[in-house]
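In line with agreed milestones, the collection of sequences with tokenised folds has grown. A representative record is reproduced below.
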Amino acid sequence: MLKIKKQKFYLFALLLPFILFVIGFEIGPLVAMIKNSFYADDGITVSINQYITIFKSKFYLQALKNSLIISLFSAVVSVIVAVIAAYSFTRFSKKIQNRLLMIANMTSNFEGIPLSFSYIILLGNNGLFTLLFAKLGWDLFADFNLYSWTGLILVYVYFQIPLAVMLIYPSYQGIKKQWIEASSLLGGNRSSFWLRIGIPVLLPSIIGTFSILFANAMGAYATAYALVGSNYNLLSLQIASLVASDVTLKPQLGSALGVLLAATMIGAMWFNERMMRRIRRDLQ
């Protein structure tokens, strides 16, 4: 009994730095942000005026709407592409699969300012491909504007797809060859197998991945800022402008927007958990 207590003490001691890290860099700022959001602009008077301002302002509601739309759209597209890409990975040998996963892992970390800068170099108004195709007489990018909604979607999808592949790929390892063979023996074809067996087995992973991608896109800041700056109204950009701007510095209002953003992401995670529980229960 004493030995077990010592082991628990050692495990807790090893876990203590991580606990302090979470408290110091995640829970602490979150509590401070929530507290700050209930102050007026003077930073002294306790008030809910910041939330009233947000829900009365068409500008901030538009920022929330735009963030929700771009997050949902990029997450849906990325999940669809990732399901197909992850399945194609499984058709290669193990050696090639490991190399493809290594590339996907490397690409998933290529985001933010470097990613936006790369797109500007390649597809901007004076980008490499833009000028090259124009010189060849091909107007492939005549109606394309990188610094618009379309360009923003393209960049978001680019950094979302590798992450989605990394999250969905392990689920394919749970699909046994025996299931495909049993389905074939019972008269089923490949399409019926995926519709009745494969997709339902993958569904918890797909929904979980969608939730992570949605939260990832909602919180993305550097990529959007480097690409469109303040020309497009997104929630993350408005929070940054209120907290770090030299012109409209309103940290209390920025904190209230941050709480709203966090609540949206938590709501998405809660919905994901409910859906996954229901799917697992139906599969059982």
